[in-house]
Write a structure and sequence with these properties.
By secondary structure, the chain is α+β, with helices and mostly antiparallel strands. Helices cover 28% and strands 26% of the residues. The protein has 18 helices and 28 strands. Strand 13 (291-299) and strand 14 form a beta hairpin. Helix 10 (365-382) runs parallel beside helix 17 (708-720) and helix 16 packs across helix 17. The N and C termini lie far apart (62 Å).
């Protein structure tokens, strides 16, 4: 291949590095903009007795104030309709939206918020998922069981919005026959996506009542649908224009500030812009689910895993949101990428009085791997087996099935990826320096796809235009261009890809789930192939040849074996204008994508300072099964970014709450990994063309974060002999564990 597989720079890079790209807060209109602000609840759980907005409405410079009375009295939600955009009778988290204002400037808007008087009856709150499951826990949704719910919802009771138990094989027999049984509990706290750009929106409602919103989003069609649902409008009354996006990682798919801006614009008759503060974003946006895990595993003396029982409790926050998606994904990932004949899975999704949790790069993956892969290491050490060999012994292979993924699985390269990582890291020669250790973890993700469509057009000069609605977060547009260029035999420079808005773009998938390129790439490839077919048909008449005998490459179409007998693509495009076919264009859709496993194996080398517990990551090796790397440069960058993000979750990140209020809602107190903390990340790609993806591509962005916390935890144990069962692996926890170890000695 001439374009696919090449390391090419991103096509939009100059606009970004020169500051020309327009992000959410950069949007300006010819008419003056109002500043919007949202009033959030100071309480995690309370009844609203009254709301008085009269003083705020009379403040000079205030153009609109909205409360729940300005919205249709409906609840919304994709799986459970449990949420009102502005609270009517009850608030369920600190920052729960109660009212919103629009004013001529920020100072006036903030003063208006202070003038709104809300009388609350404070109720007991519950922040932890396990506590919320107790019979005496305060009910967050008294009417939970009466809310409309999708058919897959089951087990609703109290604060439990979803409970599913899965049985495979004979779990009791499996544990009876096992030579050893290991049981451990783990906990992963809530962490935030920490995108640099907070949520922002500009909304305008025209005289006909049609709303246009400019937003940085990963899912323009889902946001359009959500706004329409909240206001009870048809979809054609909502236009979403996606801006450039300063990071998302799954956190910019659910409605946040958009409906407030629309309501204020509708009431004021003027455009309204809302930009979240960093503290508001931390407190109320859609972070990763906290998760309590219990892993019980039965093994034979030779290391064969014969039974595994997993219990997972996800605290989903005040509303369901995407909690059930995360739950379903967790069920697929729970056992890990291992062949286990007897399995029991208990999955709970529970309401809690904190932010509505949502998707975050590999939802549920890092949490579950932190438990599963640590226990695999514990088992290996107890049985005196090498951790790599134990994983190789039990890893799934081609044709295997897993409890929830269905099967048989295809394109399975877990063992090859394991061997690649171990070899690259020099696994056999472990660090011998004091307080240094090496850890390994095997990450597992199922890559699917979502319904998508794309348009491809041959221009009159032989260049190509691609129309899509997918938002580019990680080089997707460049890779789409490479796919189309490869099919049509042109250079990437000859292809222009435009992300259009919801009015003009063909329906596109979300930019998430490690399936954006897989889904959109398939649709774009189909459209390009149809354009190629049309090129051949138009040229065949002129060249007096059969279409099947023509070759399209090098910006030309010619008769096979006779390169001089041909036409340029520009000539073909011009011919088509007078040809019975007309302009050469195609819009194609793709829908059916089988789940395929993708594997990521990481080896971390760390040094632990025993006097402080401080951890330094010295070296990091990541091997990943990527199918075909459409752009290896982009693929390696994705993996390196995932590792750095995962290291923050492993060693320093956690949302800390007191009475439902986040205590560390700034980058001063919420510590993410920076370039000063980052080790060198060595990336090794395992490439085998996968079925179903464009040119055999698999998803990349999510599998690469899954094993990070577990690999670091295993390396810490190898270095100093202490095992930490709850994230983050902070210096304080390690130091306390070291001190406790010393006491026992």
């Amino acid at each position: 291949m001439k374009v696919v597989g090449q390391e090419l720079p991103r096509v939009e890079i100059l606009e970004k590095v020169t500051g020309q790209s327009v992000f959410g807060a950069d949007v300006r209109l010819a008419s003056p903009l109002l500043v919007g602000k949202i009033l959030g609840s100071p309480h995690a759980h309370a009844r609203i007795k009254s709301i008085d907005t009269r003083k705020a409405e009379k403040l000079p410079g205030v153009k609109a104030v909205v409360t729940a009375r300005d919205f249709p009295p409906v609840k919304f939600g994709r799986f459970i309709q449990d949420e009102e955009y502005l609270a009517r009778d009850k608030v369920r988290l600190v920052g729960d939206k109660v009212a919103a204002v629009a004013a001529v400037d920020e100072e006036t808007a903030e003063e208006a918020l202070r003038l709104i008087k809300v009388d609350y009856e404070v109720l007991p709150a519950v922040i932890d998922g396990l506590e919320a499951m107790r019979e005496d826990a305060p009910l967050i949704h008294e009417d939970c069981e009466r809310y409309w719910a999708a058919g897959l919802v089951q087990g609703r009771k109290g604060n439990i919005l979803y409970h599913k138990q899965s049985l495979h094989g004979d779990i009791e027999r499996g544990f009876r026959e096992a030579d050893r049984v290991f049981e451990h509990r783990f906990f992963a706290p809530m962490v935030h996506q920490t995108y640099i750009e907070p949520h922002a929106v500009l909304a305008r409602v025209d005289a006909s009542g049609r709303a246009t919103v400019w937003i940085p989003t990963q899912a323009q069609f889902f946001i359009r649908q959500s706004i329409a649902e909240i206001f009870q409008w048809p979809l054609i009354k909502v236009r979403v224009i996606p801006t450039e996006i300063g990071g998302g990682f799954g956190g910019k798919m659910l409605p946040t500030v958009e409906p407030a801006a629309v309501a204020l614009a509708q009431k004021s008759g003027m455009p309204v812009q809302i930009v979240m503060s960093r503290a508001e974003d931390f407190q109320t946006a859609n972070p990763r689910h906290p998760c309590h895990m219990r892993y019980k595993t039965g093994v034979m003396r030779d290391g064969t895993i014969v039974a595994r029982e997993i219990e997972m409790v996800f605290g989903t926050g005040a509303f369901c949101g995407n909690g059930l998606v995360i739950g379903q994904r967790a069920e697929m990932l729970a056992t890990g990428p291992y062949r286990i004949p007897n399995v029991k899975i208990d999955l709970f999704c529970v309401y809690t009085n904190h932010a509505n949790c949502g998707p975050y790069r590999a939802p549920s993956g890092p949490q579950l791997a932190f438990g599963s892969e640590q226990q695999i290491d514990i088992i290996a050490r107890e049985l005196n087996l090498d951790p790599v060999e134990l994983r190789l012994k039990n890893a799934i292979e081609e044709g295997d099935t897993t409890p929830a993924a269905g099967g048989p699985l295809k394109s399975v390269y877990a063992k090859e990826t394991l061997r690649k990582a171990a070899e690259a890291a020099g696994w056999g020669a472990k660090p011998r320096e004091k307080n240094r250790g090496r850890g390994i973890a095997l990450g597992y993700w199922l890559v699917g796809g979502m319904a998508s469509s794309a348009g491809v057009k041959l221009n009159e000069d032989g260049t190509v235009s691609v129309l899509t609605g997918v938002v580019d977060l990680s080089g997707t547009v460049t890779s789409l261009g490479q796919i189309v260029a490869e099919v049509l035999g042109v250079d990437l420079e000859d292809v222009h890809i435009r992300t259009a808005d919801s009015d003009f773009a063909p329906h596109s998938t979300i930019s998430a789930g490690s399936q954006g390129l897989r889904s959109m790439g398939t649709a774009a490839k189909l459209a390009a192939e149809e354009v190629k077919k049309q090129i051949a048909e138009v040229a065949a008449d002129k060249l007096e040849a059969e279409a099947g005998d023509l070759v399209v490459e090098g910006k030309r179409v010619y008769v096979r074996g006779t390169k001089e007998k041909g036409l340029s693509l520009a000539q073909v495009a011009q011919l088509s204008m007078t040809h019975k076919r007309g302009p050469i264009v195609s819009v194609q859709s793709a829908a059916q994508f089988p789940n395929q496993p993708a594997f990521s194996v990481h080896v971390a080398d760390v040094e632990v300072e025993p006097e402080t517990g401080q951890v330094k990551v010295l070296r990091y090796v990541a091997a990943q099964d990527v199918g075909t790397a459409i752009n290896p440069l982009s693929a390696r960058g994705q993996i390196q970014g995932s590792v750095i993000q995962g290291l923050g979750q492993a060693l320093s990140e956690a949302c800390v709450f007191k009475n439902g209020k986040m205590l560390n809602p700034t980058f001063l107190d919420y510590k993410i990994f920076s370039s000063l903390d980052a080790p060198r990340v060595e990336v090794h790609l395992v490439e085998h063309a996968a079925e179903g993806g464009p040119f055999g591509a698999k998803g990349i962005g999510e599998p690469s974060i899954v094993p990070v916390p577990a690999a670091v935890a295993n390396a810490i144990y190898d270095a100093v002999g202490v095992r930490i069962f709850d994230l983050p692996l902070s210096a304080e926890k390690i130091l306390l564990a070291l001190q406790e170890n010393g006491k026992r000695r």
